[in-house]
Amino acid sequence: MADSAYAVIGGGLVGMAIAWGLANRGKQVTVFDEGDRGFRASRGNFGLVWVQSKGLNMPDYSRWSRLSAQLWPKLSEELGNVSGTDLELSQPGGIHLFLDEDEAEKAVADMEKLRAALGGDYPFEYLGHNAVKRIIPEIGPEVVGALHSPMDGHVNPLYLLRALHTGVRDAGAKVLHGPRVERITHTKDGFRIHREDGVWSADNVVLCAGLGNARLAPMIGLDAPVVPNRGQVIITERVRPFLNVPTAHVRQVGEGAVQIGDSKEAAGFDDSTSKNVIAKIAHRATRYFPLLENVRVVRTWGALRVMSPDGHPIYDKSQTCPGASLVTCHSGVTLAAAHAKVLAGWICGEDAPDYMEVFGAQRFALQKAG
Amino acid sequence: MRNVLHFKRLDEASGDTVELTFEGEPVTARAGETVAAALLAAGHISGRQTPVSGSPRGPYCMMGACFDCLVEIDGEANRQGCMTQVRDGMVVRRMTGARDVDRGSAA
């Protein structure tokens, strides 16, 4: 008998959401977690539960993100109960501010196109400066307008990660912290997980190793062409609440600090910060909210997004090594609820939305051939 | 909150003294000390109340990392006491909760 029915490779937000979903379905699960020594996107992300503008070129990704946002209140409640921590989930709608008329016009056109592709069921509106100011009185004079969508929100991503770790253990799964998984082999008896400190057997394997998926996937008949994309983040001192809705680039967290982000760079595996990018996102934030000029920065960090060639998730099952599957995306926070509630079921053979197959890695092979 | 003295200056650490106030109360410090060190030496182990739980906080790491030593200095909120040197006539006050930010033109 194998050491576990399901080996989940990766103990970040993606791996833990899947592990929690599997364990709650009565499956025997072992998580192999490299911890914070890895390039763990889960310790550096921005914390948005975000739907607007996602899936402009893949409407099913938009449906999937929205489904997850709808499942989030239940996830938050369950994880809150099991961990005793309020995850600070708030879904009051989200705002994407614009400083440039042309940029705003193009974004609205893209969103209208997506709404049409979704058969009209895609709530958002464009607000001019004065309408935005009624929602957020602190916006600066340079803000020309904003996209507002009631689908969006935010959460404390570190509390989420901690609650998932508590929940997974509570549901009876094992979490093995330690060195990275070096190798996965497939035999007629199932899978072997090789680490420096031992070898474990499993009937099934789910790859949730973030950037590590690129290396591990080919070992078990899967393809994960993911590359790092660096985001840098600024955290300010705690100030009294002035921003009660999340925006795409700036949000105020439950405890009062302001988080500023959304830089995107190809910087290889360098997850440090750089003065020019930090200065750029800080400057942009002060144009959105001039009062930030007087607020102190207390921390900055860099983290690496896990990006597929089209930016959308990859969910796949191995044809050559039955029992192996792959879950990778760059929106581990937004998609946590769909991963735990729906995708974990798809992995163990339950019914799932009929559009799941569009997320297979085969789409990249087709693009190459095309 | 004023407690039993937990901290003592080394005898050899002598030098000029400066006078500041904490919550209106006079505090004598040595030139070159930080505000956090001066307050601890004077027995003020807590300089603020955290906006998260409302419980008292005081200097912890003394090297600029933990932000538990925040105080208001000369009217400026959320200054790191451990990263600020004392000056004669300095007015230090307790931080209670999160600071207000200037509302600027939106006010």
Describe this structure in words.
The complex is a heterodimer of chains A (370) and B (107). The longest helix of chain A has 25 residues, at 59-83. In chain A, strands 1, 2, 8, 9, 10, 11, 16 and 17 form an eight-stranded mixed β-sheet that branches. Chain A has a four-stranded antiparallel β-sheet with strand order 13-14-12-15, with helices on one face. A three-stranded antiparallel β-sheet of chain A has the order 4-6-5. Chain A has helices at residues 13-24, 59-83, 101-117, 129-135, 157-170, 213-216, 275-288, 336-347, 362-369; strands at 4-9, 29-33, 48-49, 94-98, 125-128, 145-149, 153-154, 174-177, 181-187, 190-195, 198-207, 227-238, 250-252, 257-260, 297-307, 314-317, 324-328. In chain A, helix 1 (13-24) packs across helix 8 (336-347). Chain A has three domains: 4-79 and 157-224 and 312-369, FAD/NAD(P)-binding domain (3-Layer(bba) Sandwich); 94-150, no CATH class; 227-307, D-Amino Acid Oxidase, subunit A, domain 2 (D-Amino Acid Oxidase, Chain A, domain 2, 2-Layer Sandwich). Chain A starts with a strand and ends with a helix. The mean pLDDT of chain A is 96. With 370 residues, chain A is α+β, with helices and mostly antiparallel strands. Chain B is mainly β and 107 residues long. Chain B has one domain (17-97): Roll (Ubiquitin-like (UB roll)), CATH 3.10.20.440. Chain B has one helix spanning 35-41, and strands at residues 17-22, 25-30, 48-49, 56-57, 70-73, 76-80, 91-93, 95-96. In chain B, the strands form two sheets. In chain B, strands 2-1-7-5-6 form a five-stranded mixed β-sheet, covered by helices on one side. Chain B has a three-stranded mixed β-sheet with strand order 4-3-8, with no helix packed on it. In chain B, strand 5 and strand 6 form a beta hairpin. The longest helix of chain B is centred in the middle third of the chain and has 7 residues, at 35-41. In chain B, 27% of the residues are buried. The A-B interface holds A 133, 137-139, 141, 237-240, 242, 255-256, 290-292, 294-296, 298 and B 51-52, 67, 70, 78, 97-106.
